[in-house]
Amino acid sequence: FRFYVVLIPHHMENYTKVRNIGKGNMGACVLVRHTQENKLYVMKLIDLSKMTSKERTASLNEARVLSSLDHPNVIKYHDSFLSRKTEHLCIVMEYAEGGDLAHKIKHAKGNPFSEAQVLDWFLQICLAVKYCHSKRLLHRDIKTQNIFLTSTGVVKLGDFGISRILQNTFDCAHTFVGTPYYLSPELVQEKPYNTQSDVWAM
């Protein structure tokens, strides 16, 4: 399972900024409009100038991983390029206009979602994770902030910044990464882990 991304020096002129969305682990996210397509996308701006070599590799990894995935429940990759002026890696992705699941839960203000709704979301998350695992890809940071919704209720798994490709199905990873609330027992105990840690996070 190998993949490559061609990073074109400058494509920024193809996009106009609409508004800021927020900040992620390694950069800011901006809602942009493609000037020719007249379509909205999310652009992740990653400042490479302040990063260590390891952090740069992680950022490039996200672009490579996204470009290799094609599933209705995974955020789609659109473009990636380097901005010469600001030394930013720009990753352009599908825009899920319904926001993330964490925001959805927060705005429910304690009112429970229906069982049917929860099962529908959970099934779609399972399909996304199953697809990633079929590609020997560990997401390693599944949480409500990284699960997005379209206006029609389609679930999209995103933010592959710390994902990891296993060489074969039975390999284990060893690096301690992820969000504390969602860590599996083997991660907490700093033991080797595999796709089952993603299942635990769900």
Distance between the termini: 25 Å
Main pleated sheet:
5 strands, antiparallel
The residue ranges in which pLDDT falls below 50 over 5 or more consecutive positions are: 1-9, 162-178
User: What general outline do the C-alpha atoms trace?
Assistant: globular
- Name of the CATH homologous superfamily of the largest domain: Transferase(Phosphotransferase) domain 1
Could you estimate the helical fraction of the residues in percent?
25-40%
Q: How many individual helices?
A: 5
Indicate the mean pLDDT: 76
Biggest sheet: strands side by side, in what order? 1-2-3-5-4
CATH topology of the largest domain, by name, is: Transferase(Phosphotransferase), domain 1
Question: Can you identify the CATH class of the largest domain?
Answer: Mainly Alpha
The CATH architecture of the largest domain: Orthogonal Bundle
Q: Key terms for this structure?
A:
5-stranded antiparallel sheet, single chain, 5 helices, 2 domains, Transferase(Phosphotransferase), domain 1
